[in-house]
Design a protein that fits this description.
6-stranded mixed sheet
Length: 467
């Protein structure tokens, strides 16, 4: 594959990287290659502190940058399909629950559609006709499922039984099967041998039937950032199509440990592509663990950036944990109650709106096409600037810009402030440019005819629609 590199003049190379990368290359600022099928993370935090970097919500577009800063010239960057980005988001949903907030299945389906998510992750059980009806209804609405195929105890179904159930009851509703979830936390002394045997049985069962053999199989997820435990589990690459990872930033910036986790996952999946099936932030501000929280307002800034950080590394599917808070815990003292994009009463948190806005801006349903290239440069770019270039089928380009900076101190649980940076975008000719800030609004914040738009950036992701 041909690689186009950024040419840098007058500054550090810290923010530059190839525009297209092979799947094994985890370049931070890169626009990675697409995956034909999937990608998705939640994980216990290891408590390692990353020094906070000050930041603040971004201001509106205006002042022109000076030429004293970094000028990064793309020399003609090839875009990725906007609709691939907008369809990359998956969400964890407890579809087997029939009580409480999770039991409001019609409302859950409505909220998934309002969000714009086209994928969900859930555990599948045998003899759950109500769950099958929910998954078929969601599939009819355009939301397909990654299903966790039980655990080594066989409670709720063996791998063979669950694959048979999916084939007979769910049809096209299932887009992937997944190995056992976080079995290293099971308390079993022989957890690794059990997880290996379970994965081998699952892979064999999926590939033994013509009804399921074309469906990808994800490996087992290991929790807690543990390279040691992955080494105990060992190489399972012969029994999976995708590696499986969980990663929670724990109040830190969205880029936290992504590259390290991809490298660690290769102990299990080898050179197979790596997915993140759980990731996200919780809002339990009085939780005392070292899996630190964020405020709801900070999660709305980090949410779009989290999606962009993973997509920039070549992932076309990633699953947030989770859609709904598990409990209405007003004390905010248990993180497991507060990972939702929606509160327990199904009201929106700000992050739900931010992600919905981003998916709406980038949505481009319809026939596939070959995206073109855009020759542009970025002036005044700080070394923490990241970007992705997308294109819609109507020819419009979408330039996603964000800075890898913190807006929150997770230890002190306070907002951080940083001086905004003015980024100039230099285009070949005058054209229509609209500025979107998904963390703030669905609507464009500014629209202009120009060949040199500029945007004042703090901590939130900005989308420039060009053309």
């Amino acid at each position: 594959m041909t690689t186009l590199a950024l040419a840098l003049v007058g500054g550090s190379t810290a923010s530059a990287a190839p525009l297209e990368l092979a799947q094994s290359d985890p370049g931070i600022t890169a626009v990675g290659t697409t995956l034909d099928s999937l990608v998705g993370g939640r994980q216990a935090d290891d408590g390692t502190a990353r020094p906070p970097v000050a930041s603040a919500p971004a201001a509106s577009a205006t002042p022109a940058p000076t030429d004293s800063g970094l000028i990064a010239s793309t020399g003609g960057e090839r875009a990725r399909l906007a609709n691939v980005f907008s369809s990359s988001l998956g969400v964890n949903v407890k579809t087997s629950n029939n009580t409480g907030a999770w039991g409001q299945h019609a409302k859950i389906e409505t909220e998934l559609q309002r969000l714009g998510a086209r994928h969900l992750r859930t555990r599948l059980y045998t003899n759950r006709s109500a769950q099958y009806a929910v998954l078929r209804s969601l599939a009819a609405a355009g939301v397909r499922s990654d299903v966790i195929a039980g655990d080594p105890t066989g409670v709720g179904g063996t791998p063979e039984q669950l694959v048979s159930t999916a084939a007979s009851q769910l049809g096209s509703a299932v887009e992937s099967f997944e190995g056992v979830n976080e079995w290293n936390f099971s308390g079993h002394s022989n957890w690794a041998a059990e997880a290996r045997a379970h994965q081998q049985r699952l892979f064999k069962a999926v590939n033994a039937s013509s009804r399921t053999s074309s469906i990808p199989v994800l490996g087992p997820a290991i929790s807690a950032n543990s390279t040691d435990q992955r080494s105990v589990l060992g190489d399972l690459s012969a029994y999976l199509d995708y590696g499986n990872n969980h990663l929670y930033p724990g109040g830190r910036v969205p880029s936290y440990r992504i590259d390290q986790q991809i490298d660690s996952a290769r102990i299990i999946c080898g050179n197979k592509p790596v997915l993140f099936t759980e990731m996200g932030y919780h809002n339990a501000l009085r939780d005392t663990s070292t899996h630190w929280p964020t405020s709801e307002s900070v999660a709305a800034i980090y949410g779009p950036r989290l999606l962009a950080e993973h997509f920039a590394r070549g992932e076309n599917r990633m699953y947030l944990y989770d859609l709904v808070d598990d409990a209405a815990n007003s004390l905010l003292n248990n993180r497991e109650d507060h990972f939702g994009l929606l509160r327990n009463d199904l009201s929106e948190k700000p992050v739900f709106g931010a992600l919905r806005n981003l998916l709406q801006v980038t949505a481009d349903p319809g026939a596939s096409f070959t995206p073109g290239s855009l020759n542009y440069s970025l002036a005044g770019a700080p070394s923490d600037l990241r970007h992705i270039l997308l294109q819609k089928s109507n020819g419009k380009f979408l330039l996603l810009l964000w800075r890898d900076v913190a807006v929150w101190d997770p230890v002190k649980k306070v907002n951080l402030a940083v001086g905004a940076a003015t980024i100039g975008v230099r285009l070949p000719s005058t054209t229509a440019v609209s500025v979107f800030r998904p963390s703030a609004s669905t609507s464009a914040q500014a629209t202009m005819m120009t060949s040199a738009p500029s945007v004042r950036m703090g901590g939130d992701l900005v989308v420039l629609q060009i053309g």
